Amino acid sequence: MIHDSYRSPKPAAPNSRAGRWYLAILGLVVALLGGLFIWLMARSFLRAREMRTWPEVGCVIITSELEERRHDANSPAEFRLALSFGYEWKGEAHTGDHLTLRGSPWSSKRVLADERAAEFPVGKKTTCRVDPANTEFAVLKPDSLAPGYSIWFPALFVVGGLGITFRALSGRK
After folding, report:
1. Number of folded domains that form the chain
2. Which domain holds residue 26?
3. Residues 78 and 59 both lie in one domain
4. By the number of CB atoms within 10 A of the CB, which of 4, 103, 143, 150 ranks highest?
């Protein structure tokens, strides 16, 4: 026989109204954040897929040099490849300077910038993709399609958040 002093106290009622509303709002916030990330990743994926439809034209690397910057005297150095390339579109000569849609990325690892510089030496003949809506804009590398392959992860937050909200509002255990 168990003495009454050893028994655990009864838990509070799990169906309290304030608790259910708290869980419902928490679930909606989680779902909305997941939805935001789905939208951002879908936008990146669609833009990258569109870039793959841009026409490829021959181009030549005109300049290729490393840039270095420091935000302040105590910060580490960052490096990037500053380049320009020439291409011809419908008989008209153009110059571009974008490695990717966002330009050349900065990195604290000089090795990465050196590798990019070795990939695009001055005088190298390669191909670039020209934006047909703005032929003054071209890139050497289209963006990655990876966001489209990873969109399932934020979708889990949408499903989970909606599940939390539904269970909280329906009063199911």
Report:
1. 2
2. 15-49+149-170
3. yes
4. 143
Say if 37 falls within a structural domain: yes
Q: What is the pLDDT of residues 3-59, one digit of tens each?
A: 555 665 555 555 588 888 999 999 999 999 999 999 999 999 999 999 999 999 999
Instruction: Spell out the residues 6+ positions from residue 133 whose beta carbon is closer than 8 angstroms to its own.
Output: none
Tens digit of pLDDT for each residue in 84-130? 999 999 889 999 999 988 888 888 888 988 888 899 999 999 999 99
Query: 73-105 b/e with 16+ CB inside 10 Å = b?
Result: eeeeebbbbbbebebebeeeebebbbbebeebe
Helix (H) or strand (E) holding 162: helix 152-170
